[in-house]
Amino acid sequence: MTMFIWRKFARSTELTFSLRKKIKNIGFISTRLQGTDGVSLETEKWSEVLERMGYSCYYFAGQSDWDKQKTVVVPEAFFDHPTVKKIQDNCFGKFTRPSALTGEIHHLRKLLKQKLYDFVNRFQIGLIIPENALTIPMHIPLGLAITEFIAETGIPTIAHHHDFYWERQRFTINCVPDFLSMAFPPPMPSIQHVVINSPAERELSYRTGLSARIIQNMLDFETPPPGIDDYNKDVRADLGLAPDDILFLQPTRIVARKGIENAIEVVNRLKNPKIKLVITHFGGDEGHAYEERIRNYAAMLEVPLIIKPELINRVRAISPDGKKQYTLWDVYPHADLVTYPSMYEGFGNALLEAIYFRKPLLVNRYSIYEVDIEPLGFEMITMNGYVTQQVVDQIHDLLQNPARREQMTTTNYQLGLQFFSYQVLAHKLKTLLIEFEGFHVPGTEAQEMLTP
To answer: Where is the Glycosyl transferase family domain (predicted)?
Structure first.
């Protein structure tokens, strides 16, 4: 049986871990655990399911608003930290790097690696789950630090990959190919790799020779979605909508790959002044040029566009100026249709959420949707990269047909329950964990689980 030896720094005692030992504490590692970005959302879901399975979860991040008693925040681990941003800006768009840049990267790597040792020692972590930190090189020193930490300790690791650097054009030209090969992702025997779609699994194998499990984005379909209550009943009013307005919801960040101009064109072509397009998120980490383009395009087509991300928070709260802040899940119940015209998605968190809230969907048939979602039988209005009159007519007819909307959204919810529920996630996580700790069921429970 393989043994994992953790050799900690001189001041620490040496610990020996075996695959036979039941893991108790799990540590998630990410550049950011805050807000409603896809990585934070999926980390929260995995954590919730693992806690239900009996594990205790702890968190290491550069920025976080999660439970302070269980979270270590290291500012230098955030991808937008000034030092990190300077390093990252100098790593891409060129083919050679000065030795000073190499030194800066290694200096920060050492600091972050020490912080990882402190984190694991403090919470007695038995397994780590880097969340996209070994996937996309938004923070090269952190990826190197995690890789070295794994190499030095042999700690059981589930590397959760959301989007790889070869999927983003801005990382194509770079002066760090050695670091990318080493850590994004690293080929370590104590790592199990997890991707969120089947094309990523095939591409990872082709490029690196590494195998991976597929665990798509999941939702708690076993629990009925929340509706409109005394707190969120004011969402429409706070968004500036009239009671009889038709709310088209774009529940994404404002970045170019979301294809939001298609949603604007749809609203324009429906010629219904009551339809308002609401975008719930900020522009994100890819600049503001696309947001400016979207605002200008909506103005040119005379489409009522509402962008109020300041109203959306991870939890319900009151802002400093005394106004309500809502969760994204407070907004979904008010939506009449969800627009999801993305050009590319790793999987589709917002798509699953719209299914969960039983909302009709307009979807661009991005590649992952075509391969991993559409074949399951979901019923949606689809487009192929651009808006056609047929798409406009389908939306118009659907808005006039409540019975059809009910049938469509009920079918989708049942398929979500079947393929993307927490029960499915728990089963897949158990399979991963058995690889590290074996099958642990005390007493007679083992026989009960094996009994048909």
So the answer is: 235-413
Which pair of structure tokens corresponds to residue 126? 């038995």
pLDDT one-digit tens code per residue, 36-65: 788 998 999 999 999 999 999 999 999 999
Q: Which two tokens stand for residue 283?
A: 């522009």
| Residue 364 structure tokens | 């661009």
Considering the domain architecture, whether residues 249 and 390 belong to the same structural domain is answered as yes
Task: Count structural domains, the chain.
Answer: 2
DSSP 334-364: G-SEEEE--S--SS-HHHHHHHHTT--EEEE
- Nearest-angstrom CA–CA distance, 137 and 83: 15
Question: Same domain, yes or no, for 31 and 168?
Answer: yes
Q: Is 452 contained in some domain? A: no
Residue 424: inside a domain: no
Q: In whole angstroms, how large is the CA radius of gyration of the chain?
A: 23
CB atoms within 10 A of CB 223: 10
The closest of 398, 321, 374, 440 to 54, measured between CA atoms, is 440
Q: Quote the CA–CA distance of 87 and 178 in Å, as a whole number.
A: 15
Contact 194/432 with Cβ under 8 angstroms? Answer: yes
Residue 71 has, within 13 A of its CA and on its CB side, a CA count of: 18
Closest listed residue to residue 248, CA positions, set 99, 72, 392 = 392
Q: Which tokens in the block code for residue 317?
A: 């709260």
Burial class (CB in 10 A: 0-12, 13-18, 19+), 45: middle
Six-digit token string for 111? 């600091």
Q: Domain holding 14: CATH number?
A: 3.40.50
Any residues with CB less than 8 A from the CB of 149 and at least 6 apart, and which?
113, 116, 117, 120, 155
- Axis-axis angle for helices 99-123, 82-91 (nearest 10): 130
Question: Which of these ranges, 9-23, 51-65, 187-201, 432-446, has the smallest mean pLDDT?
Answer: 9-23
CA 230, 236, 237, 242 torsion-angle sign: negative
**Mean pLDDT over the full length of the chain:** 91
In this prediction the pTM is: 0.86
| Residue 62 amino acid letter | G
pLDDT per position as a tens digit, 393-445: 999 999 999 999 999 999 999 999 999 999 999 999 999 999 998 865 544 33
Cα 230–chain centre separation:
30
CATH number at residue 258: 3.40.50.2000
Q: What does the DSSP assignment read for 405-420? A: HHHHHHHHHHHHHHHS
